[in-house]
Design goal:
Length: about 170
Amino acid sequence: MGTDTGRDGTGPQAAGLQRFLAGARRLGLQIEVAERPRARGLHEAAQLLGIGPEDIVKSLVVRHKDGSFLFALVPGGRQISWPKLRALLNVNKLSLPTAEVAFEATGYRRGTITPVGSTTAWPVYADAGIAGRRISLGAGDHGYSAFVAADELIAALGAVVADISDPE
């Protein structure tokens, strides 16, 4: 598996990155990890990474009405469509948890969240717009982005692919 962390990825500040890398190995994912400076927004992040904004995928933690969680993978420039996601799950209530609850559910802080290496393997729902692309997503720690073929990620995670987003 190809991984390149840019720096040695050791120490307490890189615990999330190490968990992400271990999760990627377990899933058999071919990933590349790049170190990057903090960006002030989607377009700046895309420019820093040399990709289009739509190739940056947000991993959002969503609370199910039964108290469990799920991941929603949404491309940059788009947001969760609550009506579409509720209809897909056949529920009338979903919500975004607080940052602390999201951390408790995944082991990752906001801005670093990814389903890969999450402390709990919650179900994953991927917006159809990410399919067939090479995408970037959080790598478990601030200052890192991971690149992966979306179709490989979807298959490895057993993600449900559907139209779950709307333009921002």
